[in-house]
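Dear Dr. H.,

I hope your travels went smoothly. While you were away I took the liberty of generating a structure for the chain from your last submission, since the lab meeting agenda had it listed for discussion. I wanted you to have the full record in hand beforehand rather than looking at slides cold. The sequence, exactly as received, is reproduced here:
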Amino acid sequence: MNLRGAHGRRGRKAQATLALAGATMLGALSVAVDYSMEFSGLKDLMSSPWAMAFPFLSFLKFDFDGVPIFCSTALFGLTAGFLASVIMGLAIAIRASGLIGLVGAAMKALAEASTMVGAYLALVKARRARGLWLSLGPITRAAVMCLANLFVVPHLFQQPLAFVVGLMPLIAFFNIIQGSITTYLGMAVALAVVKRAPHLLPEDAPILRSTRVPA
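The corresponding predicted structure, in token form, is as follows:
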């Protein structure tokens, strides 16, 4: 009995170590994606239609930073996704200038972490129509970031609350689009990992709860 308990504890410790290593690696990959897109100009290029349509919100930029973070959540769990989000946020904060840059880094980390909450629920609960369930990721992100902007923008940018409230539909729209990029592209990458290397995943990987890998 004690022997089985010891084996169980060792197994859980090994799973936790694997999740920590995976989250750290994928968080670092997210940082690499962010820096390469930022300094190559790909973020600006990808976001140019948005900037032309809404020049007063041109500081909102699309990217692929969240794809490795989604993979961290799908393969290793919600805590791993949060850790990867924090790693990415800290890396963005390093290059930030002033208070606005630091707040922007924190908001980016919050945006990706909130996306992971909805996506994780979809991964562990969905048995059918998983693609529809995954929309919980972008929806959760939009709701959280609208609330965050309602608090941050009036204080940081000294804008009237009524003006910020008027921006909420566009802020929600942006986060739905960005959250969808993160969630659905991330799901495609995670499924490719499941298909090609299922033996590398922990037994309790969220994506395996609703995915059957052929023998």
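Two observations you may find useful: Residues 9-207 form a domain with the Arp2/3 complex 21 kDa subunit ARPC3 fold (CATH 1.10.1760.20). The radius of gyration is 19 Å.

With kind regards,
E. W.
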